[in-house]
Amino acid sequence: MSKVSVVIGANYGDEGKGLMTDFLSRIKNADLVVRFNGGAQAGHTVVTPEGKRHVFSHFGSGTLAGVPTFLSKFFILNPIIFKKEREKLISIGIAPRVIIDPRSMVTTPWDMIWNQFQEELRGEGKHGSCGVGIGATVDRYERYGDLALSSPDKVWLFYQELINAFTPTKAQEEIYDRYHGYIHDIGVYGAYMQDLVYMKDNISGEDVSPIFNYAIFEGAQGLGLDKHMGQFPYVTRSNTGLRNVRALQWELNFDFDEVVYVTRSYMTRHGAGPFEEFSDIPIGISDDTNVPNKWQDSIRFGPMGKPQWNSIQERIDLDLHSNGFTRNSFNMPVSVTHRDQYYNDFFTEAQYDSFGPTWKDVGIK
Question: What top-level class would CATH report for the domain 107-199?
Fold first, then answer.
């Protein structure tokens, strides 16, 4: 029977899931990386020993190791970002192989525009959206089902009617007029149709269950943003832990080898929501991937101590127990990344031993 390793963020994302997926893909001789939640809002950075660097959003982080990607039914496809990322990978000499589940949701530009419109209207009360349409896509599917692949013109019409029916306040008029123009722009429709054809031409819809022996299941976001476990409304519209993997187990017929929960040696949060920040960022901490942007502002850095570690353990236990597992169900290493940036005195070797098996000695940074 096929085996899998699962990589899950223990906090609010940005823990190092991409580099762990790349690392496991190589040492486990994986033949498939499975994206089992979220969508193209991920930003998983991988740097190879040869110096190739890529920030993965739509593709699995084992791609630079030559491992194909399976985008499961729980992944949200985005033809616009798919094309941009595939062309970027080709430019560095990588021709990615991608297999999709035809049941996957698909984001259109109008989902993205509507998400951005709603978030901009919130002003100081924003939820922390990435601006790539995840929430709007899920809402639309829950209400109307799949139209994006079969009838993109109907999705366009749906959002035209939605924004036409919106009555802005005086203070919202400038925002409304701008997004009203975006949604009605015929050029957006034409560009999207080209991107949709490009994606269809460069994916496969084959059944993956007979073709993999060992797969890495790559999670996106983190347990602190899980739609059931996170702090509403500062959550993602996704199950970020084991729930989706558990559901896929019955379809793909595999056994768990290990589940790797990932955290940095300090805390991070990119986007709105409660967070205890450092009063001053310690020297040496930097993040070249998570640059400030309109939707999530700047990434915030915070301390890692016993309270934070206890919260991580509680989230892990809740994820395990709610899916019928305990810490003894399989090998469960806890990966602590970015120790080259910040060697926290909290993480002594003795304390590591008390946490159980970890990847502390494998050179992961």
Answer: mainly alpha
